[in-house]
Design a protein that fits this description.
Strand content: 25-35%
Oligomer: single chain
Number of strands: 8
Structural class: alpha+beta
Number of helices: 4
Distance between the termini: 34 Å
Order of helices and strands: EEHEHEHHEEEE
Length: about 180
Amino acid sequence: MTAITAIAITGMDLTGALRITWVRDNLAHVEDHSHTDETSGTWTGLACPGHGLAVGTDVDNATLRHLAAETEIADLIWEAPDVLTAEHAQVFLAAMRAYNTGDSERADRLWEDLRAIWSKAWSANYAVLEFMQGTGLSRFAPVKPQQWVVASFEHHTSPHGLPHPHIHNIVLTALTIGAIAR
């Protein structure tokens, strides 16, 4: 199953697409890149603390595999809009050129710019996750709102190596709980 929906993050001037798929490759699609050519994952779901996973810390792939062993795994992919993809590609190429020509000062400034671009992407991703947990998905749990255990992985390129920033949000559906009323 693949579901695609357009998402607009109000007040951030950022849109994107959200794709929901069921993981059938035992997490290979995210683990193959984490700790090699991409950054490690980050625990982001509201239910993470209840499972001893501090939000904002690096995902340990062994822990993720252990938690995912007995559950369905949903992959909510937030894809950056074209404007962010173009900005990302432009700054990344300029940073690589500066680095390759030995202009380390310029390269450092451009790497900071790239981190700022990714900060926008992460903010939009968090807003999407917050919205989705508030809405809830009946396939995850019958109650709404929900709290999920989520491991988020950023990827700077598509599986074909093309510049296409996106974030994989791996949701361990058996660990979904109803949000506590406040």
